Structures are given as C-alpha cells and as structure tokens.
From TrEMBL:
One Pfam assignment: tRNA-synt_1b
Name assigned to this protein: Tryptophan--tRNA ligase
Signal peptide extent: none
Originating gene: trpS
GO BP term (any one): tryptophanyl-tRNA aminoacylation
GO MF terms held by the record: ATP binding; tryptophan-tRNA ligase activity
Residues binding ATP: 9-11, 17-18, 144-146, 183, 192-196
Taxonomic lineage: Bacteria, Bacillati, Bacillota, Bacilli, Bacillales
Keyword entries, A-Z: Aminoacyl-tRNA synthetase, ATP-binding, Cytoplasm, Ligase, Nucleotide-binding, Protein biosynthesis
Function: Catalyzes the attachment of tryptophan to tRNA(Trp).
Length: 327
C-alpha cells in the first residue's frame, strides 16, 4: 500500500492553486493508501508571522482540510509543531544537506531576493520538508510543480543518509499532476498563483465571496486572439483559465473548447466564474460548520498522537544509525 504524506502552510488565503495543484487530490488519495496530512506551521514561520494571525490561519487550514473532504477517521491530520520529531529530524537533515544545495533552490531565491532580512529557516526550509516526508516512510508525496525541486532534495537526503549510515529512510516518489500541477496568476500567466502575492486580484482564494470571484475572473488577463483554445505555449492565460474550468467542472478541455467555439472570452469567463463559484460554495458551507465545531481540536490532538506513534519510530532509527547515543 502507498504511504502518502503532504503538507500545506498555514499562511492564509488558500488559493485555487493550492486546491487544484495539491489539496483536491488529497481527498481522492484517501482511497489509495494511508494518508498523512499536515498543517506545516513550522514552515510558515520561515517568513515571520503575527502570532495571532498564525494561530488563526492554523485553525482555518485545519477546517479547510476537513471541508474539502479529508476524513479524520481514514487520514491522519495534524499540526506539524505538535510532533516534535519534525524539528528534531529537521536538524539531522540540516547536517546532511549542503549550503550550496539549499542556495540553489528557486523558492529560496524567489523569496529572499530583494528582502532586507532573510531568516535562516527560509534557507533550510527544504531540510525540514525532507524530515516531514521521511519521518512517515512516505512512498508518495502529492505536491504542486513548485515543490518538485524540494522533493528532489528530499530524495537526495534519504539516499545520502542511507548510504552513509545504513538503510534508514524510504526514498519517496513525487506525485505531480501534468495538468493542474501549476496554476498561474490571473494577472500574469507567467507567474504561479500564490497566496502571498500582495495583489489579491491575482488569485482566487478558496474563501472568496462569489461576487469577488466573478470580479477577479472578469478582470483576468487573456490574449487578443479571442479563441477559447488550449495552447500552453502561445496562449498561457486562456490555457490556465481552461485548466481551472476543466478541474472545477470535471469536464475534459475539448468539451469546453467546443462549447465556446465562435464565442468570445466574455461568455467563457462568465461561465467560468459560475463553475468556480459552484465548486467552492459547498466547501465554504462546510468550512463555516467546521470553524464552529468543537470537534476540531480533538481531531488535531488525535492526529498528533497517531503521527507521533509513527514518527518516533523513524526518529529512533535515524538517531541510532547516525551514532547519537540511545539508551
Ligand atoms: N499555483 C499553484 N499551482 C499548483 N499547485 C500549487 N501549490 C501552491 N501554489 C500552486 C501547491 O499547494 C501546496 C501547498 O502549498 P504551500 O502552502 O506549501 O505553499 P507554496 O507552495 O509556497 O504555495 P503558495 O500559495 O505560493 O504559498 P506562499 O505564497 O505562502 O509561498 C503545495 O503542494 C504546492 O505545490
């Protein structure tokens, strides 16, 4: 059976990109193996947050996971900082990876360029991510395409550690969708849709009101050809909108292309907004329910216990193999 691990950062404003690229698949994967999903708060503090906002985002993400259909009886859902082994193995991974490898990461370059101050954690982020995955002997890791390089690093760490200290970790496989693995910004199809983009018109947030969704999609960048056709190279903006349409409506691209033959972008965008609103409305309703639910805390506590039971075994093995004394 597959052992599946993935995480999302509680940095607020979860976007359609997060949903289509990663979270939507988390739900389906519950039928394919043992799933372990984390709210990776330790990752989110690599860019310092207001304590109050971090607390809120964390609980909001927990509610969001449940709202999209993560079943806590099937899957383990937990807050990363509740399982201390993440920080501990993260350190061992920092002592396994090299600075040069970390400095080459495009996410690090993107997020550090032009900043007055950059935390140490932003650089060592991939070491912590490697720990997250390796702790659970994950065989499969569903992520968006932006995480591909970090996944490669995780595999390198597992192999390097195993070679040096003996068989300790399972080398995981990334699961990146060819279609939807990289949703682009609405205002610039050359940039990925990102929740930390200061321009809120660049993304659809999962919790956006219908009227905001309609407005954002109406304003989305297109091209001057006026033909609804999928062509990632020459028509990146329309291809991105088609991808969103297709995933949210569960219809193949060709069906959608045919529907808008001879019609302009106006009709297409109007319907796209409706499709997105229809996909998000039930999630938003569930979300309101979960945010008010007293069960939320218990689910996370239980998740942390179940996660610790697995992580502590791997941690012992890593400690022992590396030569840290264990009694
Ligand atoms: N635009 C995207 N298209 C497809 N997948 C995406 N993911 C993120 N953006 C897109 C995937 O969502 C999962 C959770 O992401 P994360 O919380 O770890 O943060 P991130 O990858 O750094 O995404 P953001 O939205 O850009 O967040 P910020 O702005 O805070 O950095 C991951 O599997 C990711 O691949």
């Amino acid at each position: 059976t597959k052992q599946i691990f993935s995480g999302v950062q509680p940095s607020g404003n979860f976007t359609l990109g997060n949903y289509i690229g990663a979270m939507k698949r988390f739900v389906a994967l519950q039928e394919e193996g043992n799933c372990i999903y984390s709210i990776v708060d330790l990752h989110s503090i690599t860019v310092p947050k207001e304590p109050k906002a971090l607390r809120e985002y964390t609980m909001q993400l927990a509610a969001m996971y449940l709202s999209i259909g993560i079943n806590p009886e099937k899957s383990i859902l937990f807050i990363q900082s509740h399982v201390k082994e993440h920080a501990e193995l993260g350190w061992l991974m920092q002592c396994t990876g090299y600075i040069g490898e970390l400095e080459r990461m495009t996410q690090y370059k993107d997020k550090s360029t032009g900043k007055d101050v950059v935390t140490c954690g932003l650089l060592t982020y991939p070491a912590l991510m490697a720990a997250d995955i390796l702790l659970y002997d994950a065989t499969h890791v569903p992520v968006g395409e932006d995480q591909k390089q970090h996944l490669e690093f995780t595999r390198d760490m597992a192999e390097r550690f195993n070679k040096k200290y003996g068989e300790t970790f399972v080398v995981p496989e990334p699961m990146i969708q060819e279609f939807g693995g990289r949703i682009m910004s609405l205002d610039d199809p050359s940039k990925k849709m990102s929740k930390s983009n200061p321009n809120a018109a660049s993304y659809v947030a999962l919790l956006d009101e219908p009227s905001a969704i309609v407005k954002k999609i109406k304003r989305a960048v297109t091209d001057s050809e006026g033909i609804v056709r999928y062509d990632k190279v020459n028509k990146p903006a329309i291809s991105n909108l088609l991808t969103i349409y297709s995933v949210c409506s569960n219809e193949p691209i060709e069906t959608i292309e045919q529907r808008y033959e001879g019609r302009g972008y106006g009709d297409f965008k109007k319907d796209l907004a409706e499709v997105v609103v229809n996909a998000l409305t039930p999630i938003q309703q569930e979300y309101t329910r979960w945010m008010a639910s007293p069960e939320l805390e218990d689910i996370l506590k239980q998740g942390a216990e179940r996660a610790t039971a697995i992580a502590s075994v791997t941690m012992d093995r890593a400690r022992r193999n590396m030569g840290l004394v264990t009694f």
